[in-house]
Amino acid sequence: MRVLLSIFLLAFGSSFAVADTVVAARNIRHNTVIAPSDLKLVATDMAGGFTSIEDVVGQEARVVLYAGRPVLANDIGPPALVERNQIVSLIYATGPLMILAEGRSLARAGVGDRIRVMNLMSRTTVTGSVAADGSVLVSQPHFQNR
After folding, report:
1. Quick one: pLDDT at residue 9?
2. SS3 assignment, position 10
3. 24 secondary structure, DSSP code
4. Are the beta carbons of 72 and 96 closer than 8 angstroms?
5. 38 in Cβ contact with 24 (< 8 Å)
6. Residues 28-79: pLDDT tens digits?
7. For 104, which of 11, 34, 69, 139 is 20 to 30 Å away at the CA?
8. What DSSP string describes 73-114?
């Protein structure tokens, strides 16, 4: 019986797939833009990591990345264009109507991220998406008729 168990473990127990995975070459603080020198490829059997350094370079660390640990998709994101308390342009556009105002961002955000911004004139808080130029596009709220 032991012989059969040993043969089974040898045949099927060591069949892990090993692939190159991107790991941090040094500890990387959160909110740091990742450079090629911050990363290296190692052979590992961990699933869910990046297999190409080019996919990670230029992204921003959302959490602390520890040396030797794989970089996962939730650990990184696009670099922030808008910092907390930064003055940004608020743009509300619908059809031919466009309203521009200044606002103060209430969080950090990158392109496409949703962010809360305080309108400096009315002191109300609105939510919008960060555009590539750093402005915030405020969408019209959709109310249901009751």
Report:
1. 47
2. helix
3. E
4. no
5. yes
6. 999 999 999 999 999 887 777 898 999 999 999 999 999 999 999 999 988 9
7. 34
8. GGGEEPPEEE-TT-EEEEEEEETTEEEEEEEEESS-EETT-E
